[in-house]
Amino acid sequence: MTRPSARAGRAALLLLGTLLAVSACATGRPVALPGPGEQHVTTPDFAFVRDSFAFPNEIRSRHPDDPDLYANYCFVLARGIRQFFLFARFEPEAPKLTRSGYVERVRQVAARAPWRGLAIDEPRIVIPGYASLREFSKTEEAAVKEGLGGRFWTLVHWTNWRVTFPVTRAHQAAVAAEIVDELRQGRLVQLLITNWPIPELNHTVVVYAVRPTRAGIDLTVWDPNDPAEPGVITFDRLERRFWATRVHDTRPGAIRVFRMDYAWWL
């Protein structure tokens, strides 16, 4: 006879396994990918040089002797860029705030869930004295970093374990279709990307445009590790897989892609 504690343990493991499996799944909505010759699909009103952070998330292995490195904050920054895009408004003509005042404004932006969007009657949080996120984060870098908060919970979030999972080609095709669908609806798309078991890429980027190609689509991404220029991830329509075409400090090659922060539990 199985002991109650053993049954409970097995049930807990089964539940955990089910949750992990579901977390790796795309919704599978039937969305057509744009074909060659069709127009680019972009998030309206988003501009890389205006609406992204001016400072990078550093790679710790490249700076082993720097104890104060702003490293392992890629998830914080990727979530943050979406939150500023959704919930903030810049007023360059308004009087500037003190450092503590800007910290508080950034905290207000970072407290809003990026998956729910802006309600019709919900005011945006005003950032006075600056015209854009790029300008604001360049001048008030320390205040922005403090307001965005720590990295601990992003590092231990349970969905990060998806990087160890194998995925089907059908799953990756569904993710590609969902990315296009989200962009068409005017939303930025945050991705968890990995080439595990190679210990090189367990990272997050934000897609803001898609360019159709003969073989599939090119995703134009903002990479927290590289504020200077956009990155590119390619989806091959025939192979139904993603490829790191131009991802910062990553060799080109096959990767697995998951969506991030598009529901309270994902």
Tell me what the structure shows.
This protein folds into 2 domains: 26-41 and 156-259, Cathepsin B, Chain A, CATH 3.90.70; 47-154, no CATH class. The chain contains 7 helices and 9 strands. The protein has helices spanning 4-23, 74-87, 99-110, 133-139, 141-148, 152-156, 169-184; strands at 41-42, 88-91, 125-128, 189-194, 202-212, 216-223, 226-236, 241-246, 253-259. The protein has a 6-stranded antiparallel barrel. A two-stranded parallel ribbon has the order 2-3. A hairpin with a 3-residue loop joins β5 (202-212) and β6. The protein is globular. The two termini are 38 Å apart. The model is unreliable at 6-25 (pLDDT under 50).
Order of helices and strands: HEHEHEHHHHEEEEEE
| CATH architectural designation of the largest domain | Alpha-Beta Complex
Percent helix: 25-40%
Unreliable spans: 6-25
Shape: globular
Structural class: alpha+beta
Q: How many DSSP-defined strands?
A: 9
The main sheet orders its strands as 4-5-6-7-8-9
DSSP helical segment count: 7
What is the CA-CA span between the terminal residues? 38 Å
Output the CATH class name of the largest domain: Alpha Beta
- The gyration radius over C-alpha positions equals 20 Å
Q: pLDDT average, as an integer?
A: 86
Number of domains: 2
**Would you tell me which CATH topology of the largest domain applies?**
Cathepsin B, Chain A
User: Largest beta sheet, briefly?
Assistant: 6 strands, antiparallel, barrel
Strand content: 15-25%
